[in-house]
Amino acid sequence: MFSFLKRSSLNSHLSNLKWLYAPTPSAIVFALQTSAAAFVGLYIAFWMQLDSPYWAAITVWVVSLATPEENDSKAHWLIVGTLIGAITGMLIVAAFPQQPALFIILVGMWVSGCCFMSRFMSNFRVHAFRMAAITGALVALDSVSNPNSCFDVAFSRGSYVILGVFLQKLFSSICVGDRLHIRVEWLQKKLTENVNTTCLMFSNFFAGNNDNLNKNKSIFLNIYDLNQQSEFVDLAAESRSHLGAHGRMTLSIANGILIKIFCLENLLKTSPTHKQLGDLPNRLSAFFIELPKLIISHHNTSFLTNTFEKIQQHFYEKLEELGSTFIHPDKNNSAKEAEFYFTHCAIIYDILTEIELLFQHFNAHIRPNQSIYSKIYSYTNFYKAFYTWLRIFSAILIGGIIWEITAWENGSLFILFICILSCIIHLTDLPRPVSIGFFKGTCFAIFVTSLINFVFIPKFYTIDGLAYLLIICMVVAGLAVSKGVMRINTIAYSIFFFVLVQYNNQHIINETTYFNMALCVFMSAAFITLTTFLIFPFSDKNESYFACKKLIKNVQQLTWNVRQIPSTQEWIAAESCNLVYMLRHITKRPQEEQNQYFFGALASISIGIQLIKIRLCITDNKMLSKEFKKLFKDLCKAIRTRHPNQEKTHLLYYQLIDYIQQQESKKEYVHILASLCILKSQLKNYEDFIIITNRSRLFIE
């Protein structure tokens, strides 16, 4: 038994090290290209007799990512941020060279201000503000002891960044090759996977496999990440191909379909109406499993189109039939069942319409033939940005006080590392685990560099001899990046590895300098880790509350008479960002509470979709009476209240239903009636969502 446990433990350890002894081809290419670029940058810096050549290698690793498009985008914004930061750093030194307190306050304001603004950016535009903050702090703190060298420091740091960016771009272009073909294939593969999953979940719903639905809640996170990555296809592709835009539209529609599937599944827990559809669910389940293959293969397209049209027509006829005989649901129980059945059919018909649109954009992505624009949405929140500003400014201010009190020789370097780590750690969605991973990577960098500085470097007297040692360390770090769990640790290791080895043209680092530098690095990493727990501590409950509050606020804004009504795809794409952010911060809560938040958030998005549809119907149909518009306005007002009254909301809903029943031609109101029924079906979850959100607010306060 003990031998079996030892063997299983050994196998577990070996599987964790698979990235090292059995790396993937892409990981090997990435490690070799980045290591080669870093070493060439280091060699050029030695050849040019620059004062701190290790910054060239650090820049290569900072820029390094898996694809050329990401490198191009990140490098572009890094250069912009570097230029702005270098100018700002010189201005800070010129303003307060002899006033430590004002100098530190100004550095803190600059760094925290840049991080505050970056919270409202998406993708690698964040790096412009991040690099502006880091470069400004670096130039100011490096030259504060000798203000006359300010321009030289700014020029050298800018040269390192441009050199590192150029080398990484050169080597990645050589290694990756035809990047357009690779990126398009990658996006098509990911889109196909998500389309297949969407159809499979719809099929599972009809088959009654609700367990599979609950297991696939993480698909919203995958779609969000893929949506962010689609921007880089636009960078690689021709300007008129619109590949990424069609991909984003496909993902937005898939998100809407999934939201409706989960809402329908939750609705049917209380009122199962599958039995009223006869054997249709089984036939639909089989059809939607095969649908993605038929669409991609383009075989029997006429049969596919006819089958899909028949299914849509069947549900539309059901809607017209039920809508024409719809009566007040309070009159008898059979009427309530009819209402549930009508809502059931309305959601399915809505999903079928979305699926048709989904495959139109999916096919247009494979063979783009029309111009289209689709905005990239990301999660933004003023409170989150404000707390980020407070944390970073407070950390730099406390670091400055420590420097002033202790008169530490490496105090300026300590604050510089605080600025750099703050810009990296506090701008992530999960600062606490990231800070812990960064601290572990820092400790490992100190351990490895101590061996290199005291054991290996004394045996090498030329750059060529040192190269063999450094290449091994760089390649191992490059392979570790491919393992997602170790990515943060590796970033910390890569940055501080070059700082602590301290290559120089004239000399190698001595023991005293190394110990002071290692202590400074260790203290800064430990200090930043503590700030995530002590200075305006980061909390999953706070973050999930902000996301929930934003979901509710956005629904309430739709109930006003807004001039510009967003499309349903725009609404879904924007609100999915809030949904994903909320999901990432409720993972540690009990499953029952997670479900309340999940279905409440979906209900808020679904209600928003129906409000948009009804508003568009009112805008397009000029024949609707003022009485109907007034009733709908009152319903919106009831939904908008901070503490919704369910009885009042239902009363207004029934008044709208009665108004529609009094009309001679009810067919014109089928779509409005369907939207009203779907909206009403989600009100209970939405009201529970508001209650649980307000309760969490009281707990936070």
Automatic annotation (TrEMBL):
- GO-annotated cellular components: plasma membrane
Q: Which UniProt keywords apply?
A: Membrane, Transmembrane, Transmembrane helix
What InterPro entries does UniProt report for this protein, alphabetically?
A: PHBA_efflux_AaeB/fusaric-R
**Which branch of life, at top level?**
Bacteria
Keyword Transmembrane assigned to the entry: answer is yes
**Residue intervals passing through the bilayer:** 20-46, 75-96, 102-121, 385-405, 411-430, 437-456, 468-501, 513-536, 597-616
Q: Where is the signal peptide?
A: none
Kindly list the GO molecular function terms attached to this UniProt entry. Answer: transmembrane transporter activity
Name of the protein in its database record: Fusaric acid resistance protein
Q: Read off the lineage from the record.
A: Bacteria, Pseudomonadati, Pseudomonadota, Alphaproteobacteria, Acetobacterales
